[in-house]
């Protein structure tokens, strides 16, 4: 919806006059061929060749850029951007050699630098040797946005060291359906948590001035705009059906937060919403993003998604038709990895009048603006000498800190921390694997080469040996993954061996979950954890030895039948290269748990709810003959996580019993560490609108803060929030705050307050 000028969002990024002048000057000198070429992004793998060299009697395979191929693509088609790695992460040296060759050809032939982009999901994960962090879902479990900023800074530094100025991150798809294979790539199910993480990450990656990124910053591409995380079938890249209020109020919010924080580019959801492929939606791309947010950044397709408009979505008759639809909808750059047809067909469309020159100029301005903002015209390549801290110990320590705050204690009957000298049987397929700790987008798309590239980091087995002594740790896995073929393939189990080994142990630590996967290859047919793994836990528990379950998984797989058999449960999600070290420290009590679930952990397949389910999803039996009750179940709720210490909450207060739109309210609560160990606690405040004109959410997270408390220490935690943040999107798609009663909850307490007036916002976004 285009707005009245008085309702306009102030520019998301203030314009820099000098940059705008340079953009116009460059644009003036460009031919139509130059312009359509700028709008294409090709895959790096297409531009090089395999190399072979004998080293120390061993044949070593490598990869090198091919100047002839660059001439026939970048130079000939005036291509504006390159992405990806040729299969596996390159070394720093390989990047530093390849990217300048591309830049050189681009500068010499086009006078415009190329922009090279990579998926760096949890640190610079496509650069061998870089500092790998916990995956986004684990970072979300920290409820600590400052860790996200640090990850963004380190990832930016190490990406820039590899001469890559652009990352396809952060991923802001709300993970609201546990069946989906990409839940772990983003920051959980809640829009506020994800928005806070988004702001923190954009700051970390891009720095404080989106017009002038420094040599330690990279441009982000927030993705996948939007509604990608809610496929009706649960399968990747399939249609979503999302109501207008849900779209605006939940799925759009993290993207809006990122854009307001200065995000320079956006990548689009591959699939469709309510029947409209997002790549074909003028409403979502041009109106909601560019016009309503007054945003002058650049929109990039996802992988070959213009093709998908005719090959899969069937809204276009052929490629040319698909290009016409997508560019007119608002796409600025096409990730068309393997083909230059885009340039030829788009040029024809312009010549035929099916795409206006004005639209092309707008797209090219946006592309050039990003390149100027990155300073690439002045300095197309990084200077390798500027990055002496690449993979330094202090970066690694930050990753360890993040992993320590990410791992979640879900159950503990007193068995943890494990005592010194305890003899431990480590079982399960995740007990000795770097691949499982890291998940997909690690060194390769599916994460399948991690065992080799990350071999000098510690698996859970190695970390446990280091911490508890090799003599005290027995490894007998019982179930193992088959490391080729489908991610979920397992070898024939040998459960008896693991059971026999339990005789030698005081405690069994069963490391179960998933092997790495990503996108469509990670689709699943059954949310239950594999039968072999559940059989293993049942057989181990039958020995009578206490069992600790370590869940190492990208999405919450159902463990309802084996949870009662465990004395303790820890969900480490995907904690990265230092995740096992963190786990050993936490299990030993050297550090305290403070992670909390960023997604609801389901208990049954027919109750895949989120924490903010509609009130009518849970009702009690009504009077009379018939039972119309409804129940929601969950194994562990959103925001749940235990600690080795205890936090006592008291005195929840609100500063105003009545409030009006335009006000701010302050909630406060006392939190005291009543245990014997120092600990961190994420204090979560929720609001509930008791009666509304559409069925209200049962509750919404309205603020959170993580505090650190010594034993006996107490703190008053305050949350000041604008009353406008209590508004919801009504049936007409507009934000509204209605008078009536609210309840605020925190730490098991609640406090009421009343809104005294109605307010409806005419603009699509709340601007005050
Ligand atoms: C994924 C994106 C990714 C792109 C480039 C696509 O398949 O959906 O998340 O950024 O590939 O690698």
Quick structural overview:
The chain is α/β, with parallel strands linked by helices.
If you had to describe this structure to a student in words, what would you say it looks like?
With 768 residues, this protein is α/β, with parallel strands linked by helices. The strands form 7 sheets. The protein has an 8-stranded parallel beta sheet with strand order 11-8-7-6-5-4-1-12. β6, α7 (191-206) and β7 (219-225) form a beta-alpha-beta unit. α1 packs across α14 (357-373). It is globular and about 75 Å long. The two termini are 19 Å apart.
Produce the secondary structure layout.
Layout: H1 17-28, H2 32-38, E1 40-43, E2 48-55, E3 58-65, H3 67-77, E4 81-83, H4 92-110, E5 115-118, H5 136-141, H6 145-161, E6 166-167, H7 191-206, E7 219-225, H8 244-251, H9 253-260, E8 265-268, E9 272-273, E10 276-277, H10 282-291, E11 298-300, H11 305-311, H12 319-329, E12 334-335, H13 341-351, H14 357-373, H15 393-406, E13 408-412, E14 424-427, H16 434-438, H17 450-453, H18 460-468, E15 473-475, H19 495-502, E16 507-513, H20 531-541, E17 547-552, E18 568-571, H21 579-588, E19 647-654, E20 658-659, E21 664-673, E22 679-689, E23 700-709, E24 714-722, E25 728-729, E26 735-737, E27 740-746, E28 749-755, E29 759-760
Helix pairs in contact: 1-14, 2-13, 3-4, 6-7, 6-15, 7-9, 11-12, 12-13, 15-21, 18-21, 19-20
Bound molecules: beta-D-glucopyranose (BGC).
**In angstroms, what separates the terminal alpha carbons?**
19 Å
Share in β-strands: 15-25%
Average pLDDT taken over every residue:
96
Q: What helical percentage do the residues reach?
A: 25-40%
The helix/strand class is: alpha/beta
The shape, in one word, is globular
Low-confidence stretches: 1-6
Question: How many strand elements?
Answer: 29
Distinct helical segment count: 21
Largest sheet: 8 strands, parallel
* Unique ligands: beta-D-glucopyranose
The largest beta-sheet arranges its strands as 11-8-7-6-5-4-1-12
Rounded to an integer in angstroms, the radius of gyration calculated over CA atoms is: 26 Å
